[in-house]
């Protein structure tokens, strides 16, 4: 497979700033995905979310939680009939600490409100809960934007419920739901943590930063000591899911780990809306790809097989991989962060999450069972 020429700044020793690297990848991705006329929208949104970085390189910023190698950004491509380009970043600045990151997160949100009129109602309802003066986590917030062929950039934020201490993560999720008027969703959340919050751990609380009645609140969970059968059983109750397709997806993407997903735990997500506060509006499975497959070329072959099983072309995915990669896929692993799968009204939907590898290739496993989030 032909790759973009050149190598990452981490390899050359002459790295561009993290913002410049992100802008370059976004422009290429937008063009490769047929969103070339939306490149300016992508770049402007990216700039609005990364002001705290200044001119720092990725190496001059703290190791981020956004991508598996610690890069402070991630790109995601919705592989369906209306392709979407999503990008996520962490609000960091050179030499900062978690207390500083709280300030950076608040400043980033304030900037989005000033520039875009981003809806801040639900943010205001939970900001003090998830952005305390003395956070117990290294990371406190990530911001994201999604751009499609039509419409404005859509923003979202992810918070870390362990920010008050890992033992309080579930409590802060419950309080967050109540604060945004979704307290009725809590029974569905506790059902999803059937093995307890240590093994079915709530790790992220996200908000669509929109006034739309269908704007989502999402909770993300990391599942420890499980396998493909356990993941299939967990997801079977949700609309459109069935155990057999989940097992097949795991078998296609992680054949070496079907019987044991403990090296790098999978993630699931439940979404809720104010229109139906007690009901799970959607569920998604995320499989981590940077620790199981031998290299990114193996992941590429598996992605093509997964797309074919959904009766979808791999062309969009191949173009995205070509534009985001800075090396041949067979030369290591770490370009692919996660692959997401969820049933659709017709065919299942897949989304690929990519790291720009601004720090290094072959990232280590993360999120040990007893480690703090």
Which properties best describe this structure?
single chain, 373 residues, alpha+beta, 32% helix
Write the layout of secondary structure elements.
Blueprint: H1 9-12, H2 18-32, H3 39-49, E1 73-78, E2 84-90, H4 98-116, H5 121-130, E3 141-147, E4 154-159, H6 169-179, H7 186-192, E5 200-208, E6 216-223, H8 228-235, H9 243-253, E7 267-273, E8 282-288, H10 296-309, H11 315-324, E9 336-342, E10 349-354
Antiparallel strand pairs: 1-2, 1-10, 2-3, 3-4, 4-5, 5-6, 6-7, 7-8, 8-9, 9-10
The largest sheet has its strands arranged as 1-2-3-4-5-6-7-8-9-10
Strand content: 15-25%
Strands, total number: 10
What gyration radius follows from the Cα positions, in whole Å?
Answer: 19 Å
The overall average pLDDT, rounded, is 93
Order of helices and strands: HHHEEHHEEHHEEHHEEHHEE
Class derived from helix and strand content: alpha+beta
The residue ranges in which pLDDT falls below 50 over 5 or more consecutive positions are: 1-12
Helix content: 25-40%
Main beta-sheet strand count, sense and barrel state: 10 strands, antiparallel, barrel
Query: Looking at the structure, what is the overall shape?
Result: globular
**CA-to-CA gap between the ends?**
36 Å
**Total helical segments:** 11
């Amino acid at each position: 497979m032909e790759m973009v020429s050149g190598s990452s700044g981490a390899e050359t020793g002459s790295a561009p700033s993290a913002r410049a690297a992100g802008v370059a990848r976004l422009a290429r991705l937008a063009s490769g995905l047929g969103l070339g006329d939306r490149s300016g929208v992508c770049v402007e949104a990216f700039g609005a979310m990364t002001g705290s970085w200044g001119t720092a390189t990725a190496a001059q910023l703290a190791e981020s939680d956004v991508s598996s190698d610690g890069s402070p950004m991630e790109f995601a491509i919705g592989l369906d009939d209306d392709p979407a380009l999503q990008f996520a970043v962490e609000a960091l600045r050179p030499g900062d600490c978690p207390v500083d990151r709280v300030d950076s997160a608040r400043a980033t949100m304030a900037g989005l409100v000033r520039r875009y009129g981003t809806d801040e109602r639900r943010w205001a309802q939970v900001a003090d809960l998830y952005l305390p003066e003395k956070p117990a986590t290294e990371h406190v917030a990530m911001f994201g934007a999604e751009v499609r062929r039509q419409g404005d950039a859509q923003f979202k934020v992810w918070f870390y419920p362990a920010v008050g201490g890992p033992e309080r993560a579930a409590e802060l999720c419950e309080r967050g739901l109540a604060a945004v008027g979704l307290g009725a969703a809590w029974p569905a959340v506790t059902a999803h943590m059937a093995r307890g919050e240590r093994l079915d751990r709530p790790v992220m609380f996200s908000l669509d930063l929109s006034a739309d009645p269908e704007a989502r609140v999402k909770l993300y969970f990391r599942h420890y000591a499980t396998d493909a059968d356990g993941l299939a059983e967990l997801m079977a109750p949700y609309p459109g899911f069935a155990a057999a397709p989940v097992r097949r997806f795991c078998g296609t993407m992680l054949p070496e780990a079907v019987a044991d997903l403990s090296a790098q735990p999978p993630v699931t997500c439940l979404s809720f809306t104010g229109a139906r506060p007690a009901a799970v509006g959607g569920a998604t499975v995320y499989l981590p790809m940077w620790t199981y497959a031998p290299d990114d070329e193996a992941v590429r072959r598996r992605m093509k097989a997964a797309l074919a099983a959904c009766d979808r072309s791999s062309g969009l995915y191949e173009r995205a991989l070509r534009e985001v990669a800075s090396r041949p896929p067979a030369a290591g692993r770490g370009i692919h962060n996660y692959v997401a799968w969820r049933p659709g009204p017709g065919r299942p939907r897949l989304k690929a999450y990519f790291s720009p590898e601004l720090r290094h290739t072959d990232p280590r496993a993360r999120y040990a069972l007893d480690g703090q989030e």
